[in-house]
Specification:
The protein has about 475 residues and is an all-alpha fold. It is about 60% helix and about 0% strand. The chain is elongated. The N terminus is likely disordered.
Length: about 475
């Protein structure tokens, strides 16, 4: 039974009231009014959310497609343009900063319509916007979609099929963003990824005039071709959430490998975007993919990708140091393969500039893993270059060495003081107390600062020759 027939039947049963009056979420209702209490048979699990209310929001998402997409555009939704039926190419994206972007939980609260998009994306046609009422209603569905009971109810009504259809057909960036954001929330549950993101057929009951949709994973990857920064933000979040589930990781990697445009799409984002949150998402996604798949690392260890990462680092070095650290860790993965090492040597000038700027930061001592990755990259370059580094990085390394020596000396004083304070304990207990207070696991454990100091010392010695 299609969603339209279910809604119509529910209305005749008297359980579906005036949709305009039913839409506000339970927290906004007057708890003292009996007319606003959700009947038990209409309640979703143990929540206060109404089944009819959630279904009405899904219907609004479908209607929003019809109001935001013209008939010729709907007919070409699965055309041969390779752009997922969306007007405009990648060359039409322009740089711009984004503010007020949603957090990790995918919350829809506190965002004004369209203010984050202004001046950030230029399409061949005018960007279509949602009405404020529809946007607010769909954002409520976005907010409640993190609830497990609501997620199960949405799955029972084929919400993944519906939302992917809406995202694929719509030309309203805000509508696509909301649908993909809801999918991202649903994908937080591994069962949803296993059972609902691999179907090869979708629902004819909702969009019977369309051809069969591509496989779900392929449809999601095609959204990386979208030109809107916030759509890309939610798309990268959705893909990252899915690949983090071990049970479906291999299937996603296989789909990414056969979808050759994914790497090009990510490279374009790295080169073009000034959106801090989007670059951070791409950094984490890239690091996850290349760190967990040796085959993908061999295929993607290209000069184009490394240069794109270097360019992204120039953008994030002042605004998002965490993203820069993740990019450095990703670049270090290149050095674990022969082809990647050759790419590192080929991009030595650009890479040295990025690493020098990174090591100049006052935060490098507190980001030990990324700093060790940067130092490892410099060692790799020295091992493969006959003429030394193309950038004079020696003063930076000497400054870093002084800071690390100070940090190690401070740790040693802390250990000594901890031993004195626990003089009455046995040797084993004193060691355990020191480990708790300094982060050391045992007296023989080499602290991260000491490891970095050794690497810096080796580099200084080699460059001094």
């Amino acid at each position: 039974m299609s969603i339209w027939k279910r809604i119509k039947k529910a209305r005749y049963r008297g359980t579906f009231y005036n949709m305009a009056d039913w839409n506000p979420p339970p927290p906004e209702r007057d708890e003292g009014s009996a007319s606003n209490v959700v009947p038990d048979k209409d309640r979703i699990g143990d929540t206060v959310f109404s089944k009819a209310w959630v279904l009405s929001l899904l219907v609004k998402a479908v209607k929003a497609v019809d109001s935001s997409t013209s008939e010729p555009e709907r007919e070409s939704a699965y055309g041969s343009s390779g752009e997922g039926g969306k007007p405009g190419g990648k060359e039409e994206v322009v740089k711009g900063e984004e503010t007020g972007v949603r957090g990790e939980a995918g919350s829809a609260a506190g965002r004004k319509e369209g203010e984050e998009r202004e001046g950030h994306c230029t399409l061949a046609t005018e960007v279509k916007e949602l009405s404020e009422d529809i946007e607010n209603d769909l954002c409520q569905l976005w907010d409640v979609s993190m609830n497990e009971d609501v997620t199960k109810y949405l799955m029972d009504h084929h919400a993944v099929d519906l939302l992917l259809e809406v995202a694929s057909r719509s030309d309203a960036p805000r509508l696509i963003e909301i649908c993909v954001g809801i999918l991202g929330n649903l994908a937080c549950q591994e069962e949803v990824c296993e059972n609902n993101f691999a179907n090869t057929e979708t629902m004819y009951g909702y969009f019977c005039e369309l051809q069969p949709c591509p496989q779900h994973r392929a449809s999601i990857l095609l959204l990386l071709k979208n030109t809107d920064p916030l759509v890309l933000l939610e798309t990268t979040r959705l893909i990252y959430t899915c690949v983090c589930h071990k049970s479906v990781f291999a299937e996603w990697i296989n789909m990414i490998k056969v979808t050759t445009s994914v790497q090009d799409d990510l490279i374009f984002v790295l080169k073009s975007s000034t959106n801090e949150d989007l670059l951070k998402n791409v950094a984490v996604l890239l690091d996850k993919l290349l760190d967990c798949s040796d085959e993908l690392l061999n295929d993607w260890a290209t000069k184009d990708l490394l240069l794109a990462i270097c360019e992204a680092c120039e953008q994030t070095k002042l605004s998002s140091f965490d993203a820069t650290c993740t990019f450095v860790l990703t670049m270090q993965l290149f050095a674990t393969t022969a082809s990647g090492t050759a790419v590192i040597v080929d991009c030595k000038e650009e890479l040295c500039v990025v690493l020098a700027e990174y090591l100049c930061s006052v935060e490098v001592v507190d980001h030990g893993a990324a700093t060790m990755a940067a130092l490892s990259l410099l060692i790799t370059l020295l091992d493969n270059l006959q003429m030394g580094l193309p950038v004079d990085i020696l003063p930076t390394l000497r400054t870093l060495k002084t800071r690390l020596e100070s940090s190690v000396s401070k740790d040693q004083r802390t250990i000594s003081r901890s031993h004195d304070e626990h003089d009455g304990l046995c040797q084993q207990n004193r060691v355990a107390e020191c480990a708790t207070s300094t982060g050391m696991e045992s007296p023989d454990f080499d602290p991260l600062a000491e490891k970095m100091l050794k690497m810096v010392g080796e580099l200084v010695q080699r460059l001094d020759r």
